[in-house]
Amino acid sequence: MKRTSWLWLVPTLALVSGCNTALDRARSTASVTVEPQAKSDLWGAVATAEDRDRINRLGLAWQEALTVAKPKHAKEINSEGLLLKPRSGLSRPEPTPGSYNCRMISVGKTEPKAPVFEKFKPFFCYVLTDDAGVLTIVKQTGSRRPAGRLWEDDDPNRLIFLGSLALGDEKEPLAYGEDPARDTAGIFERIAPFKWRLVIPWPRSGAKLELFELTPVADQPEG
């Protein structure tokens, strides 16, 4: 009886041993899956709540700006082609570093006395890159000179611009976030071969949209 009483334990021990082996094998082959961080989380952590809201309301800025400006300026708006058409961004929005011919157009207004459509004199701006591949844009001339960094976004057809303004004879713009009154946020897109635009929704100038067109200078400076 004693000898027989031990026999029923053999299959049980074998079963337990088999389960432990399977668990050990599962533990050894298990891998930890880490979800990649959303690109919008990176620039969103830097942008102020006000600028995140401006970017999120970009579609509304386009709609209201064009609705107000088209009755009197339809011909001028149409002549600008893709520059003044929403949702015109193409793939590969990253600009090539170098010097650019730039011009600005403001559309719509948030203040009664502001013009609903205005073109400004052309100027030069520059796209810079550092060793890490970070792209920045600097407006080189004028009394209001925005400068800032381009951030990757979840939307592969656009980059996010976060920058600030240099005023008057200031040599350097303030860092983004240093003076909220100068902070500037927008969307950077490629809209045609060798043509980009920077769209600033709800700027502090009294417009509803500010659009900067960028085309590379033909003769790039050496170096």
Automatic annotation (TrEMBL):
Q: Which UniProt keywords apply?
A: Signal
Q: Which residues form the signal peptide?
A: 1-22
Highest taxon of the lineage: Bacteria
What is the protein name stated in its UniProt record? DUF4893 domain-containing protein
